[in-house]
Structure formats: structure tokens, C-alpha cells
Amino acid sequence: MHRGAKSWGAAAAVAGAVLLTSAGQPSGHGPGTQTAPGDAEAVVSVARTLTDATAVLDDCADADGVCAARAAVHRTAVLTARPEHAEQAEHAEQAEHAEQAAAERGPVLDARSGGPVELTLKSPGVLADVGVADAYGRRVAGTVGRDGTRWTSTGPVPAGSRFTARLVVEGGAARERRVARLEFSTAPAPAADVRLTAAFGPGSGRYGVGQPLTAELSHPVPAGDQRARRIVEHALEVRSEPRVDGAWHWVGPTTLHYRPRTYWPAHATVRVRSGLDDVQVTDRLVGGPSGPLTLTTGDRIEAVTDIATHLMSVRRNGRVVRTIPVTTGKAGYRTRGGIKVVLGKERLVRMRGDTIGISKKSKDFYDLKVRWATRVTWSGEYLHAAPWSVDAQGSADVSHGCTGMSTEDAAWLYAHVREGDLVQVVNGQGEEMTPFDNGYGDWNVPWPAWRRGSALEAPVGRDDRGGAGPLRPEV
């Protein structure tokens, strides 16, 4: 991937990163894609991919074929090891210093490159799973190549941001699964005027009425610059038919979410566009062109699990269409409470106890192929078929955080929900779903607090009681 082995300050940097693994700990939630690590090492390089390799390489005149022009686009660095779960330090001050040092040793990728970020496995083995998130816990979409050694983000990543990558490596000389963690960041944009654009999500298509809109900015707009944030918000226009009362909420310097006060109407059309083009946002930020987004909503589907009764009621447009006996998280693995949004569906998922730190020697360990899985958190909480616990469904909690049901009920649910549909858990003892770092928990933010996350600070009426409230039939 790289030619040469020079120091970080040279034109082309070394492309290796030694990442140590360490034992995982139980998270208290359902199975997901994470894996308990072993004791081996993984060597990974991090770089930006070339946006126009031919043009850049033609400019190279160095004897070794690596020139400064290429280095500005394709830069890597040596990363110091950072365990995923560090051993407990003798003193809190030592742990804090170690954390700061680990973050400072991560590479800074040149902001002038518009290319995606690329992680390449240099040691034996393949990448079984890769998760990349920014400092606010927002995931960066990407794919693993066919040979299993390279992960590439599906689009550019913002300048001036820090990212954490978590990699599960399988195989190698020890034929084991290892977990490694690394940090890297992107340099701030150059001092000259740069274009600020917005990429809207989740993408065109049909969604459930709980789907928030997202806007990813190409450059950060810090919380301290409220004037710039107001300019941005004014320019990000949302229109829906039927019309709703909604607002943008700043999740971080580069991310905004938009939601109505309650939920989108069923069978609505939502259009999002940016009016930032050529707008002077700050002294160095000028708005650029951004593509619009149009999406629609389907029926209002709500799945409400009452842990006290061990029953899930599925409603379509306010009418109960199916009641499903379920089992949820037992003590130590309680299912999260609150309102969640369907993130996706998978016909078959392999779930292992060691993904949440359960030892293979423990009586709680499991290794199962799970069918008809509807995902509601990035950390691995699903609604899925659990034929092994049918006797407990409707009467007891025996899962590791997921909501289990019969194969017939899970297949029915899988066929009747889509991304953006609403899932709520009530009367449980688990932690509440967080708003932004593990999926879409936006509806757990009371409406007045949501409005305070807007730079426009729209006034809240006296009849505004806050929050989305419980899922009730429309009247």
C-alpha cells in the first residue's frame, strides 16, 4: 500500500500500527458484532485513499516514486498500541495520562484530501468486523474488501474530527479472534476559504414514522460560534406534506438531527434541501452545493414491549394487530428502556457470548445462529427468533438483552417492520436508551430540551409538555 519507511515528519510516512488486544468485559446488553479478544497483536495501517491516483502519481519526481504531492493525499503514521479495555491503573491520574498519550499518538490525516479513510490489516488474518465512530459515538459507514484485509469508508470524513476504530481480527498464526482499537484524526481545513456542504440522511426511500433526518457537515461549526450555527440552520430547509412542527438539534460540530415534536405523519412526503451555496458562514467558511433528499413514510408501526407482562403489542396506525409473548434481558443483562428506532433487518445473525465478554467456560456462554433479527441498537440489541426460550416467553426474562420470541412471531415482525419504525420498552429495570451514540434514541429527548439544541432557540409554548410521550393510538 505504501512505498518507503520514513518517519512521520517525512514526505511519506510508515504505514504500520501495532494494536494490542485485551480481554473484554460484559456490557450488560444483547449480543452484537463485537468479539472478545485474545492475547496476540494486530498490525493495521490507516490512511486516506487517493481521490485521483493517476494525476497525483504523474507529478511524482522523487527517486523512490513517493513525492510530497502524494503524501498530502495519502498519509499514514505509526500508531502506538491502545488496548480496547485497559487494565485498571494503580492511580486515576496515571490512567488519565495514559489515555491522553494514546490519543496524541494517533495520526492526523491531511484535510486537503477528499478521499475516504482506509484501514489495512498488515498482520496475518482477516477483518471479521470493523466499527469506526467519531468522538460523539456516531458511526462512519464503510465496507470490508473481498480479501478481508482492507476497510474503506463509503465517503469522505469531516476535517478537524477525531475517530476511534475497533477491529475484530480472525485467523493468523494463532488462529484466534483478537480485538484491537486505534485512534486517528483529520486535520482542520486550511486557512483559505473552504466550502461547507451538508450530506443529508438516511437516504431516499420509505421509512417508518420515527426516522430522524440527519445532516453531516463537511466542516465543523463549533458550539461557540452560535452566529454560524444559526446561518447553517436557516439554510437547512425541511418541508413535509402534511406539515409538522419540527426542529434541528446539534448533536456535534458536524452533525445535526431533525425530528418533529412527536412523529412524522403516516404516508407523509419529506423534502430536505440546503440553501448554503455561496453563503458566507464564517470568515473562512463559504457554503457549497449540497444534494437534496426526498423520503416518504409508510404506516405508523409501533412495537411496545411491556416487560412487566412479557408481552409485545404491535400497532398499525393505532390499532393493535398482534400481541406477542416475549422474553427480555435477565438480571445483569437488562434490556434498555425507552424509545428506539429500527436500524435494519438481518435474516440470519451469529450471536456469541464472548461478544459481550462472557467466557466460554461460563454457564451463560452461547454461540447461536439467530433468525429473523430486527436491529434497534448498534451495540447489538435485536428483536429476534428464540426457539430455545419458548417456555419462558410470556412469563420470564432469560435473554442477554435482546427481545426473544417464537420463530413464527419473529418472522411475522420481520416482514411487517421497516427502518424507522418505532420500538418501545416500558416497565423494565434496564438503563434508558441514549439519544445519539447507539442508534436513534432521539425520541427520548424531551421536546423543550430538543429545542434548546437548536441555535435558533425557537420559543416553546405553554402547552408544550415535552417529549414524545408514550406511544399512543392516533386520535
Q: Could you characterize the architecture of this molecule?
A:
The chain has 475 residues and is mainly beta. It has three domains: 18-186, Immunoglobulin-like (Sandwich); 194-297, Immunoglobulin-like (Sandwich); 301-444, L,D-transpeptidase catalytic domain-like, CATH 2.40.440.10. Helix content is 11%, strand content 33%. The protein has helices spanning 53-58, 68-73, 92-104, 226-235, 407-416, 447-452; strands spanning 18-20, 41-48, 108-109, 117-121, 126-134, 142-144, 150-153, 162-171, 176-186, 194-196, 198-201, 205-207, 213-217, 236-241, 246-252, 255-260, 269-274, 285-287, 293-297, 301-306, 311-316, 319-325, 338-341, 344-352, 367-375, 382-385, 403-405, 422-426. The strands form seven sheets. The chain has a five-stranded antiparallel sheet, with no helix packed on it. Strands 22-21-20-28-23 form a five-stranded mixed sheet, with no helix packed on it. Strands 3-9-8-5 form a four-stranded mixed sheet, with no helix packed on it. Strand 21 and strand 22 (319-325) form a beta hairpin. Mean pLDDT is 77; it is low at 1-40, 50-92, 101-105 and 458-475.
Q: Please indicate the percent range of residues in DSSP E strands (runs of 2 or more).
A: 25-35%
Query: In CATH, what is the class of the largest domain?
Result: Mainly Beta
- Portion of residues within helices: 10-25%
Stretches with pLDDT under 50, minimum 5 residues: 1-40, 50-92, 101-105, 458-475
**Helix tally?**
6
CATH fold description of the largest domain: Immunoglobulin-like
User: What is the CA–CA distance across the termini?
Assistant: 60 Å
The assigned structural class equals mainly beta
Gross geometry = globular
- Order of strands side by side in the largest beta sheet? 1-2-4-7-6
- Estimate nothing, just give the exact number of structural domains: 3
**E-strand count:** 28
The CATH architecture of the largest domain can be named as Sandwich
Mean pLDDT: 77
